[in-house]
Amino acid sequence: MRPLAISPETAVKLAEALQVPLERLMHMPQHILLQKMMELAQAESASKQEKESQPSQDGQDAGE
Fold first, then answer.
1. d(Cα 13, Cα 7) in Å, to the nearest integer?
2. Domain boundaries, the chain
3. Is the separation of the CB atoms in 14 and 37 below 8 Å?
4. d(Cα 17, Cα 15) in Å, to the nearest integer?
5. How far is CA 60 from CA 20, 48, 50, in A?
6. CA–CA distances in Å: residue 5 to residues 9, 10, 18, 30, 47
7. CA-based, 20 to 30 A from 41: which of 17, 27, 30, 52?
8. CB neighbours of 12 closer than 8 A, spacing ≥ 6?
9. Where does the record place the HTH cro/C1-type domain (predicted)?
10. Closest by alpha carbon to 17, among 3, 2, 31, 38?
11. What is the mean pLDDT of residues 17-46?
């Protein structure tokens, strides 16, 4: 299996985000990498939605 065709900068960022060693990332099958990237994106979007759904606590609604 040949290594992934991604830039070194992208590889480092993905390895950090997925919390896997760089060597393992470079030899990871593409379908597994895509699955892990989808899981990461879903987790990020869920955390963003959670932050947006929390009411503002800085007193912006106090003037109503």
1. 10
2. 8-43
3. yes
4. 6
5. 42, 20, 19
6. 12, 10, 17, 10, 30
7. 27
8. 22
9. 6-25
10. 38
11. 91
Does the pLDDT at position 34 exceed 80?
yes
DSSP-derived secondary structure letter, 64? -
Q: Would the pTM count as exceeding 0.70? A: no
Confidence of residue 19 (pLDDT cuts 50, 70, 90): very high
Which one is predicted more confidently, 6 or 57?
Answer: 6
Q: Coil, helix or strand for 49? A: helix
For 10-47, the DSSP string reads HHHHHHHHHT--HHHHHTS-HHHHHHHHHHHHHHHHHH
